Amino acid sequence: MSEKLSLLIADYSLLVLWGALLFHLLLPIPVHAHPMTIWRKFAELLATKVNTARSYQQRGLSGFLAWTLMVIPAFIVCIAAQPIAWNLPLFNLGLLLISLEWRGVEKLCKATIQAINQDNKKDAKEALQPWLNREVEPLSLLGLGKASAETIILGYARTVIGVLFWYGIAGGIGAFIYRLSLELARAWSPSRDSFRPFGIPALTIQTFLDFIPLKLFSLLCLLGKNFQITLQALSQQRKSWANTNNAWLLIIIGKKFELSLGGPVIYQGKKISRPKLGGQIAPSAIHLAQVHRFLSWRIAIWIIIQSILMVIIKQGL
């Protein structure tokens, strides 16, 4: 037993996981100084240079080449730096710490809950704006509640669960590359006409990377209260949404709390129809608090399960 424990400690992967979570929660990186903020701004700058008015096929190819130009060199640098890193556990801890965004979503949640509770649309819009590609100015309090709920749900799923999943699969480099890809998919979202079809390759790649972690997290959220009702809603509604990764999670959370999610959105002045998901109740501040509490507990369960699996796998090896 002591020998297996020594091997586990020597591997450091589990210690890096919990260390990164602790550092991130206690000492979060400010948004303006976060490397991902700089990365996304560079992605937007690159798009202005290469996403020019050409044929549909050429713009799609430009999007794929731009994604490759951004991600592949970053991956090569990480691989090359790993053997020469002064301390490999600290190297992985740094990459995982940069990739996580738990506190950012939590801060968004608290800001929107407070603003919506006070009927303060201005503050709610300011809190949501950096997280959304859609237009927030026309949103009513009802629309702000829906947008906040969807953003909190998907934000936790991707910037916490997705990052942790890929850390478990491929270490700090896996988590880091996943987060870089996520930011490109957000920066070049083809929901906006100016990024269609340029952003489709980035979105397709991100959908592939999200498939397993978001499906597993959806199943974890499915368990518990209203299981059968939620499962029935999932079976009925999931085919109506283009992105099944998002649909599963939004349907399950929406139906658990009978919240009305989805519906029309506006991108660059153009109204886009989306199916309604979940239940019938318009999300309010109290519902956002309930969703936040529910997701926080599910994330804690995920971390415990992933830690146990990492112990079992390392001992087995």
TrEMBL record:
What is one GO biological process annotated to this record? cobalamin biosynthetic process
Molecular function (Gene Ontology), one example: threonine-phosphate decarboxylase activity
Which UniProt keywords are given for this protein, alphabetically ordered?
A: Cell membrane, Cobalamin biosynthesis, Membrane, Transmembrane, Transmembrane helix
Q: Where in the cell is it found?
A: Cell membrane
Where does it sit, as one GO cellular component term?
plasma membrane
- Which pathway, per its entry? Cofactor biosynthesis; adenosylcobalamin biosynthesis
Q: One Pfam family, short name please?
A: CobD_Cbib
Entry keyword annotation includes Transmembrane: yes
* Residues passing through the membrane, by range: 12-31, 64-86, 164-182, 295-313
User: Where's it mainly located?
Assistant: membrane
Q: Which InterPro entries match?
A: Cobalamin_biosynth_CobD/CbiB
Q: Give the source's domain of life in one word.
A: Bacteria
Give the membrane topology, semicolon-separated if more than one.
Multi-pass membrane protein
Q: Which NCBIfam families match?
A: PRK08878.1
PANTHER family per UniProt: COBALAMIN BIOSYNTHESIS PROTEIN CBIB (PTHR34308:SF1)
Q: Which family does it belong to?
A: Belongs to the CobD/CbiB family.
What protein name is recorded for this chain? Cobalamin biosynthesis protein
